[in-house]
Structures are given as structure tokens and as C-alpha cells.
Write a structure and sequence with these properties.
Elements (H helix, E strand, L loop, with lengths): L8 E6 L7 H14 L4 E5 L7 H5 L7 H5 L10 E3 L3 E4 L6 H4 L3 H15 L4 E5 L6 H8 L3 E6 L3 H15 L6 E9 L2 H19 L5 E6 L3 H7 L4 H4 L4 H14 L7 H20 L5
Parallel strand pairs: 1-5, 1-6, 2-4, 2-5, 6-7, 7-8
Antiparallel strand pairs: 3-4
Helix pairs in contact: 1-11, 7-8
The structure holds adenosine-5'-diphosphate (ADP) and magnesium ion.
The site of magnesium ion (MG) has 4 residues, from α1.
Length: about 280
């Protein structure tokens, strides 16, 4: 459901449960995507508990708080993150932002959609839980990365989020990412189990977009407020992340297999008709 009027893509990173790696993934994925020469904007949608700036070791002077108060525009609060991506920071400890009134939330969503057209990709670090903010930021995306770890608590919360989102349109196309598995076998096992339950009970395909295995150097990098993608660029985790970034950036990604196939046929028919000067209408 990528909007044909803009070339950019909005990807929401969500999980239901907190502490499963959304912020870590958003920050490092942004750097990996910038490395692929993409213009990347990251939005810290955990509006009242800012984490991205802390994880990156930067101290922004302004945040989404000034945008909500109308003293700054979204463009004016953008800061540069390491590796060359742009960030809209959240605020910290402002309870009113955790559950914004509907109108204020819609205004932010509209502003972000407009701003996204100046970038190749916008990543949204969605807050944990199934609150209004979280669901709204998921629904504004073209694609959603549903993050789970092998822990059953994370698995069930991710499933609950998918179930809620599926119940109403617009619903982004969804891809699963397994974080903190011991190895590829465990990640595949979790992905298969998730896919089976979502197919059976929600009639939803949730293909695996990639995995990020547990890597002890990641918490060390977090404590130093340095992205592991920069501190350990040739680690297995960085390679997994590079693969995930490329997968999410690939042009046909975001289309379900059936729709992709249909689009390819339509494109082929269009070029065939154009060559012969035939109208296909
Ligand atoms: N693949 C991983 N390997 C090891 N530790 C990880 C991994 N992913 C995340 N972590 C740890 O989990 C912590 C919580 O991640 P975070 O991105 O803040 O979660 P969330 O945004 O979902 O609440 C990180 O600070 C990091 O130490
Ligand atoms: Mg977070």
C-alpha cells in the first residue's frame, strides 16, 4: 500500500512489548540505510519517553514537545544522527504527550507524511503497548516491522498488536523480525510459529524480513551510547542488519506476493501496449 504519489516509504517498527529492541533496531537500521545512500528520517514516536537521542549519545535542544506547543515546526527540531541520518527527537517525562488528543495526533501524522516526501525512507520507532499513539503511528506506515524475541511474553504481545491492527483499515503490510535469538535455527523456529498462528487465526501472512541474533557487544555499545553498527561494522549482527536494511529498501518489498505479481504483469502489459501503440484501457 505504498502511496504512488511519493517515492518515499514509511516503515513503522513496533512490538507490543517494551525492551525487545525497537529503538536499537531503528537507530542502527537508519545508519545501515544511510550507508546505502538513502535519505533517512527517523521519528521517535515514544513521544514522552525519548530514547533514540540517549541511545545515540546526542542532546537535542528541541523536540516534538515544541512542535505540539507550536513554537517550532517539525523541520526545525530535526537533528543529525551519526552516520548521516535525520532524527525528530521525542521529549522526556511529559505525560500529556503519552496520550495526545486525537486532533493533535492527526496534525503530527499529517506533518510527518508531508515531510516524508523529502526523504527516501522514514522509520518510526513506535512506543510499546497498544495505546492510541502506537496504533496511529503503525497505521500511517506503508510497512510495519513486527519485532519479537523468542520470549513467549514478547511473542504474545506482538501477536496481540497484529490482531488489533488487522481488525481495521488502513493496515500496513507486515513483516516479522526476530531479535535476540541464540542462532538462525531459533529465529526460524520462532518465525515459523508466529507465521502459523497468524495464518491460522488472523488469516495474515507475516513473512520473516530478517533476524538479529543476541550479541553481547550490543548492550556494551548501548551503555557507551554508541550505535553497534558503527562500533562493530563487521560483526555478524551488523551483517544481519545490513541484510535487513537492503530487504526493506528493495523496490518490490511491501507488496504482498500476489499484488507484486499482479503489478509486474500490469507493467509488462503497459510496456507491451505502448510499444505497439495500443490502448489497454
Ligand atoms: N540483538 C541484541 N543482542 C543483545 N542485546 C540486545 C539486542 N537487541 C537489543 N538488546 C538490548 O536490549 C535493550 C533494550 O532494547 P531497546 O531497543 O531499548 O528496546 P525497546 O525500544 O523495544 O524498548 C538494549 O538496550 C540492548 O541492550
Ligand atoms: Mg524504545
Amino acid at each position: 500500500m505504498t502511496n504512488p504519489e511519493r517515492a518515499s516509504k514509511i516503515v513503522a517498527i513496533a512490538s507490543g512489548k517494551g525492551g525487545v529492541g525497537k529503538t536499537l533496531l531503528a537507530a542502527n537500521l537508519a545508519i545501515a540505510m544511510a550507508e546505502e545512500k538513502k535519505r533517512v528520517l527517523v521519528f521517535d514516536a515514544d513521544l514522552s519517553l525519548a530514547n533514540l537521542d540517549v541511545l545515540l549519545g546526542i542532546t537535542p535542544s528541541h523536540s516534538i514537545r515544541q512542535v505540539v506547543n507550536r513554537t517550532k515546526t517539525l523541520e526545525e527540531v530535526i537533528v543529525q544522527g551519526p552516520g548521516g541520518f535525520s532524527l525528530i527527537p521525542a521529549s522526556s517525562g511529559v505525560a500529556s504527550l503519552a496520550d495526545l488528543p486525537r486532533e493533535a495526533l492527526s496534525e503530527i501524522v499529517q506533518g510527518l507524511s508531508k515531510l516524508a516526501s523529502q526523504y527516501d525512507v522514514m522509520l518510526i520507532d513506535v512506543p510499546a503497548g497498544i495505546g492510541r499513539n502506537a496504533l496511529k503511528f503503525c497505521r500511517m506506515a506503508d510497512q510495519m516491522v513486527v519485532l519479537t524475541t523468542p520470549e513467549p511474553t514478547s511473542f504474545t504481545d506482538a501477536y496481540a498488536l497484529v490482531k488489533l491492527l488487522r481488525a481495521r483499515q488502513p493496515c500496513p503490510s507486515m513483516r516479522l523480525v526476530v531479535n535476540m535469538a541464540e542462532d538462525a535455527r531459533e529465529a526460524d523456529r520462532i518465525a515459523e510459529a508466529f507465521s502459523n498462528v497468524s495464518k491460522r487465526f488472523l488469516h495474515t501472512e507475516l513473512p520473516l524480513a530478517g533476524a538479529l541474533n543476541f550479541d553481547p557487544s550490543i548492550p556494551v555499545a548501548v551503555r557507551r551510547q554508541r550505535p553497534f553498527y558503527i562500533t562493530h561494522p563487521s560483526s555478524a549482527a551488523a551483517q544481519q542488519l545490513r541484510g535487513l536494511a537492503r530487504y526493506l529498501l528493495s523496490p518490490n518489498e511491501g507488496e504482498l506476493p500476489g499484488a507484486g505479481h499482479h503489478n509486474r504483469i500490469t507493467k509488462w502489459l503497459d510496456s507491451w501496449c505502448a510499444e505497439d501503440g495500443v490502448s489497454r484501457a
